[in-house]
Design goal:
The protein is built from seven helices and three strands; from the N terminus they run ααβααββααα. The protein is mainly alpha-helical.
């Protein structure tokens, strides 16, 4: 799918009302008035949503029974096939990445199982090394140094 067409499709589907319109149109073609009533919005508001979907190529309109005022909207399958194809490529990429991560985690787990367990308790494993110099509380870290403007606020 061309990148510009994909961008247009995704931009049109970014609005939750338009996604819900697409869901209704998946079931059957509908008149604009039916869609407006289904969503409880005004006819002009629904018209704007349908215009966005139409200009992005997601829906098409047809005149019903020669009446120029009555328009029936239906989905166009092409943009959705293209979107589905793009999503399959993205899913395949992440599937490969997650499979590689799973293999790495399983290798690391097997290696850890082969090593003898440490005698240290978990809380001691993260304690500072013995003999490590501790900074007196009076010495502030550079990031904690107070500026003159802030010093008077406390």
């Amino acid at each position: 799918m061309a990148e510009a067409a994909l961008d247009r499709t995704l931009a049109a589907l970014a609005d939750p009302t338009r996604r819900r319109v697409v869901d209704l149109l998946r079931r059957q073609p509908r008149r604009a008035g039916e869609l407006a009533v289904a969503f409880g919005v005004s006819a002009p508001a629904m018209s704007r949503h349908l215009r966005v979907l139409r200009t992005r190529g997601l829906v098409e309109e047809a005149r019903e029974d020669g009446d120029a005022r009555c328009r029936v909207y239906r989905l166009r399958p092409e943009p959705f096939r293209d979107l589905s194809s793009w999503l399959a490529e993205v899913e395949a990429f992440w599937s490969d990445q997650l499979d590689a991560f799973k293999r790495h985690a399983e290798r690391a787990q097997r290696k850890a199982a082969k090593r003898p367990r440490s005698e240290a308790k978990p809380s001691e494993a993260w304690a500072p090394a013995k003999g490590a110099a501790k900074r007196p509380r009076s010495e502030a870290k550079p990031s904690e140094a107070r500026t003159p403007a802030k010093a008077g606020r406390r």
